[in-house]
Write a structure and sequence with these properties.
Length: about 200
């Protein structure tokens, strides 16, 4: 791993410990893949000094801005992931939660949707109010009361795409979908707002 970072097993206080068989068996269901969580943490081999995170972060920055074979490989790998325009006939629905703090829409889906439209591609861009990144988090206190799930919109988009492909129906329009958090009550259709085209 670059700059001495590694995944390690940790206890509830963040100290390293051997991963128990029970903890390892639960990773597939309980781990999000983004440590820390589910008994997995990140070890920083360069962590020392008054700002223990700084040496490792400077090392990572140097991988992008520095010189050498590793930095060249990193830049080549990033360049290989750059999006190209999809074929003109491909129907596209982009859906994003407006309160996504992990991948903010202003830095991802928003510019992507504008780029597609500016280049003559047909798309529907749905921005969902009161929605974030992980539906799985809605089970945690404070999440379900504040956010609506994204999956109903994904299923609706797939239905519209199938109808477009199989029957030639028009794609639904782009829209900001107004929603209402459920608060202390149960989630109902009223909280999900009006899905475009339905």
């Amino acid at each position: 791993m670059p700059c001495g970072y590694a995944f390690v097993n940790v206890d509830a206080s963040g100290r390293r410990e051997p991963g128990s068989p029970a903890a390892r068996a639960a990773w597939w269901s309980d781990a999000s893949g983004i440590p820390p969580g589910a008994g997995v943490g990140i070890a920083d081999a360069m962590g020392e000094g008054a700002d223990a995170a700084l040496p490792g972060l400077l090392c990572l920055r140097d991988l992008w801005s520095g010189r050498g074979a590793i930095a060249d490989r990193l830049r080549a790998g990033v360049a290989a992931t750059r999006a190209t325009l999809p074929r003109a006939s491909l129907p596209i629905v982009v859906i994003h939660g407006m309160e996504d703090g992990l991948i903010p829409p202003d830095f991802s889906s928003g510019p992507y949707a504008r780029w597609l439209a500016d280049n003559g591609r047909t798309l529907s861009h749905w921005r969902v109010a009161h929605a974030q990144h992980f539906d799985a988090f809605l089970a945690f206190p404070g999440f379900g009361e504040r956010y609506v799930p994204m999956l109903p919109y994904a299923y609706a988009a797939l239905d519209h795409l199938w109808s477009h492909i199989s029957a030639g129906s028009a794609l639904p329009p782009s829209a900001v979908i107004a929603t209402t958090p459920r608060g202390d009550g149960p989630l109902g259709a009223i909280q999900l707002g009006s899905i475009p085209g339905d």
